[in-house]
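If you are new to this repository, start here. Below is one unmodified record pulled from the training split, so you can see the exact layout before writing a loader.
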Amino acid sequence: MEKKKVIIHVNDMAGWMKMFTGLDNFLNDVGQEKAEVCVVVNGPGVCGCPTAINLENNAQALAKCGSNRPEKLMVQVRELHARGVTFIACRNALRKHFITEDMIESVFVLVNSSITEMIERQQEGYAYIKM
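And here is the target side for that same chain:
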């Protein structure tokens, strides 16, 4: 059976919580073995990518992102990554938010352009869902 392939696009902090709920429901419905999921993060959504301590230690990034980051965000990201979900962050958005690559949680794959990544994945048959 062919896997259900989906890109979930998170471009702000509110999108993270929506993504966690929607993705959990999707994986429980179809089964993780029948799903190929890619979460693409860009825009202000990249403020969810750094580890909390790294964000707090970078004044410019903290000023740009604020401190309204959900405390358990990275725990949930790691759990989904362990279930086979791929997380992708946009380098352009990271730079705009003063987030350096060494601040990013190790589960993230970095791409130069998230838009290019989403277009290429859609050409490969991925469905697109915006959170």
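Two things worth knowing about this chain: The first strand starts at residue 4 and ends at 10. DSSP finds six helices and five strands in the chain.
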